[in-house]
Design a protein that fits this description.
Layout: H1 3-17, E1 25-29, E2 41-47, E3 65-71, E4 74-80, H2 91-103, E5 108-117, E6 127-135, H3 163-175, E7 180-187, H4 196-204, E8 209-211, H5 215-224, E9 227-237, H6 248-272
Parallel strand pairs: 1-4, 1-5, 5-9, 6-7, 7-8
Antiparallel strand pairs: 2-3, 3-4, 5-8, 6-9
The structure holds hypoxanthine.
């Protein structure tokens, strides 16, 4: 049997034995976006280090825990901290948890991330729903020997973010009076932020915001048939004609401030799934 398929089965089996069962939604919390966990009833929790074949999170701002939680009667899986390409992981490692979620019976994947806003209408702290993306990260997670058991060789990406889920996000944000913009995310390898010329280029090719995550997970989710939705928190304003130096500390603090409204939206969306 293909090695990755064996690993997925082993990890899913391990998590099932630990009681991580019954969730149909998984949610990945991005940089500085951890307080969602405080709004749910946590049933089980395990550090990534203790999960076989899971990569270990190295970024300080990420807590690196998988939780099974409950919202009303709905069970969800929560990844607090994700794996980034710039940390040195392969794209297969980064997306491994998504494959495990599918094996555990998950059908919807919700993601959040911190991103730089290039659309001049975006301000720090804005929430932006991804309508599409541009992938500029190297090393595709689907590259390599193909096993049909993983899904199609050439997955369709005509609608990477589920329209029905996106409508639910828009409706929910409106009901909560939380402003939610819509835009196109471009994924870059990082870890450096962009030069002025690069922001100009990324804007010209059609992106509204830029970040270093999310797209690998979304590619794999589309291959295996998980419905996806993702929301960016705009942590810095990337105007090439007036570019201010940003520090990662500031990015994290802006994300933390927007976290409350994002968590409220996520929670209410999940209640309606
Ligand atoms: N560029 C890339 N990634 C980011 C940024 C940015 O400006 N802000 C937050 N994540």
């Amino acid at each position: 049997m293909n090695q990755i398929i064996e690993k997925i089965a082993e990890t899913a089996g391990f998590l099932e034995e630990k009681g991580f069962t019954g969730a149909s939604t998984a949610i990945v919390l991005g940089t500085g976006l951890g307080t969602f966990i405080d709004r749910v009833e946590v049933l089980r929790q395990i550090p990534y280090n203790d999960i076989p074949h899971f990569p270990v999170s190295t970024v300080e701002s990420h807590k690196g825990k998988l939780s099974l939680a409950k919202i009303n009667d709905k069970k969800i899986l929560i990844m607090q901290g994700r794996f980034h390409y710039y940390e040195g992981y392969s794209m297969q490692q980064i997306t491994f948890p998504v494959r495990v979620f599918k094996k555990l019976g998950v059908t919807s994947l919700l993601l959040s991330n911190a991103a730089g806003g290039m659309n001049p209408e975006y301000k720090k702290g804005d929430l932006v729903l991804l309508t599409d993306h541009i992938n500029l990260q190297p090393e595709n997670p689907l590259r390599g020997v193909h096993d049909a058991a993983l899904g199609p060789r050439f997955p369709n990406m005509s609608e990477p973010y589920d329209i029905r889920l996106n409508k639910l996000f828009i409706k929910t944000a409106l009901e909560l009076s939380v402003p939610l913009k819509q835009g196109i995310y471009v994924a870059v390898p990082g870890p450096n932020l962009e030069t002025r010329a690069e922001y100009r280029f990324l804007r010209v090719i059609g992106a509204d915001m830029v970040g270093m995550s999310t797209v690998p997970e979304v590619i794999v989710a589309n291959q295996i048939g998980l419905q996806c939705a993702a929301v960016s928190v705009i942590t810095d304003e990337c105007d090439p004609d007036n570019l201010q130096p940003v520090k990662i500390e500031e990015i994290i603090s802006v994300a933390a401030k927007a976290d409350q409204k994002l968590s409220t939206v996520f929670k209410m969306v999940i209640e309606q799934l």
